[in-house]
Amino acid sequence: MRNRTASRRGFTLLEIMVVIFILGILVTIAVPSWMNARARAQARTCSANLRQIHQAKEQYALVNRLANGAPVQMSDLVPQYLQAEPLCPAAGGAPYTVNAIGTDPTCPTGLPNHTLNWGGGP
After folding, report:
1. How far is it, in rounded angstroms, from Cα 36 to Cα 42?
2. Which residues pair with residue 94 across a beta bridge?
3. Conformation bin of residue 3: beta by default, left when phi > 0, alpha when psi is -120 to 50
4. Contact at 8 Å (CB) between 68 and 101?
5. What are the percentages of helix, strand and coil residues in the chain, rounded to 5?
6. What are the pLDDT tens digits along the chain (122 aa)?
7. Which of 104, 107, 106 is nearest to 91 (CA)?
C-alpha cells in the first residue's frame, strides 16, 4: 500500500508578501523618474515649438519688410511659414503667444524651463 503524503505546491503568504513588498519598492523608485522624464520631454518639445514660431516670425518679417515691434498673429504664420499651429504639450494643448517682431514667443504655462532656448538671435 502506498503512503500518500500530501505535498502542497504553491507559495506561502510570507513569500507572496515579500514579492509584493519588493514590487512596491520598485514602483516607488520608477514612477518619479518616469514623471521627471515626461516633464523634461514636454519642456524640450515646448522649446522646439517656440524656436519654430520664432523662426517663422523672422521669415514673415523679412518677406514683408516689417520692423521690430510690428504685430504678428498666428494666422499670419500658418500655413505659409508653419504647417500647423503648435500647441504646448504641458498646458493641455494651449496655444502659444506669438508677440511682436523682435520679441520671443512665450509659453502659456509660464514654467521656467518652457522658454525659447535660442542661440541665434538677439
Report:
1. 10
2. 88
3. beta
4. yes
5. 45, 5, 50
6. 566 665 667 888 898 999 999 999 999 988 888 888 888 888 888 888 888 888 888 888 888 888 888 888 888 888 888 888 888 888 787 888 888 888 888 888 877 777 776 655 44
7. 107
Give the phi and the psi of residue 106 in degrees, each rounded to 5: -125, 155
Take residue 36 and report the three cell numbers written for it: 521627471
Angular region, 110: left φ>0, alpha ψ -120 to 50, beta rest: left
d(CA 90, CA 107): 10
Closest residue by Cα to residue 52 from 108, 107, 93: 107
Please give the grid coordinates belonging to residue 50.
517656440
Cα Rg, the chain, nearest whole Å: 27
